[in-house]
Design goal:
By secondary structure, the chain is an alpha/beta fold. The chain has 2 domains: 9-125 and 241-306, Periplasmic binding protein-like II (D-Maltodextrin-Binding Protein, domain 2); 129-236, D-Maltodextrin-Binding Protein, domain 2. Helices cover 40% and strands 15% of the residues. The strands form 2 sheets. It has a 6-stranded mixed β-sheet with strand order 2-1-3-10-4-11, sandwiched between helices. A 5-stranded mixed β-sheet has the order 7-6-8-5-9. The model is unreliable at 1-39 (pLDDT under 50).
């Protein structure tokens, strides 16, 4: 059974406190401010959790904004946020009207905005994985099953963002299945803030072990951006549901009847039939987008409640 540590619950409480403070002052750099951030009511604002390097996200969602703008016949603007909790807060306030959330942040946002709908996920999100990576000097051998994660005890360890599904929540869950808690690692467990940062920290030897999004890891290895002589994958977790697009319940009221369905159709219609669509799917590391439903994230909600990240 998954048991939250005192440190994990305390960190979750701190994150929740900071989220309330950010929402109250509305002055966090990069976060949207005020209802629609002062934008025209005809601007459809989209966002995403900042799980990768900002340049990667800006390129991806810039192309997505252009595609959705043409498909929906409205101005679409990508609005970056500072961290995972800021994306949930901006969605709750209505500053972001549709967001590509991770599994946990999507559940948090949906519970805070009754009627919000998960409308699409990538094909890879129905069968998603985390990876545990280790530095070459750690001496950690390849692990064949979940129980083998017990070999990580006594090493230094970093997760991604506190509320990352693939970089924190699910790695902690699988560690608990192997009988480990965060207190079993040496020193303070780190929170890098993003999957790219996790790779860099383990590659540099700052931490001996890290956990992150398998798709980001695979993509960086494929692109030659990882020194696999310094850091390598030691375990890939069993599958779970993860990222998805969540849209606010008032989208039809703001942009016309049927807008939510049209947004869903635009995402599901991405088939790589032209250069723009091929670029979007490549940047998302997906073959296509598929339908999803709230029930797909029940496991994530259960685990999130167990460690105090969902109240």
């Amino acid at each position: 059974m998954f048991r939250p540590t005192i440190r994990t619950v305390a960190a979750a409480a701190l994150v929740a406190t900071l989220t309330v403070a950010v929402a109250a002052c509305g002055s966090s750099p990069g976060a949207t401010q005020g209802q629609n951030g002062g934008r025209s009511a005809t601007t459809f604002t989209i966002g995403a959790i900042p799980d990768q390097d900002p340049q990667v996200l800006q390129r991806l969602y810039g192309v997505v904004s252009e595609y959705l703008g043409k498909a929906l016949g409205v101005e679409v603007e990508y609005v970056p946020v500072t961290d995972y909790t800021a994306s949930v807060a901006a969605f709750r306030r209505g500053d972001l009207q549709m967001v590509f959330f991770g599994g946990l942040t999507g559940v948090q946002a949906r519970l805070q905005v009754p009627g919000a709908q998960p409308i699409a996920q990538r094909d890879i999100d129905a069968d998603f994985h985390s990876v545990f990576v280790a530095g070459a000097a750690s001496g950690i051998a390849t692990i064949s099953d979940v129980s083998g994660l017990s070999a990580l005890a006594g090493h230094t360890f970093t997760l991604g963002s506190q509320t990352s599904t693939s970089g924190s929540l699910m790695p902690q869950y699988f560690l608990s299945e192997a009988g480990l808690q965060l207190d079993d690692f040496t020193g303070e467990v780190g929170y890098s803030g993003s999957h790219d940062a996790t790779i860099k920290l383990v590659q540099a030897g700052t931490y001996q072990v890290g956990a992150l999004n398998a798709a980001v890891w695979d993509g960086r290895v494929k692109d030659g951006k990882v020194d696999t002589n310094q850091v390598r994958e030691v375990f890939r977790t069993p599958a779970y549901h993860d990222y998805h697009w969540l849209i606010r319940p008032d989208a039809d009221e703001q942009f016309g009847d049927g807008f939510t369905q049209r947004a869903k159709d635009a995402l599901l219609g991405l088939d790589g039939s032209d250069e723009q669509e091929r670029q979007i799917l490549e940047l998302f590391q997906a073959g296509k987008f598929i339908e999803t439903s709230a029930e797909n994230y029940d496991q994530i909600e259960t685990i999130g409640r167990a460690i105090g990240l969902i109240k």
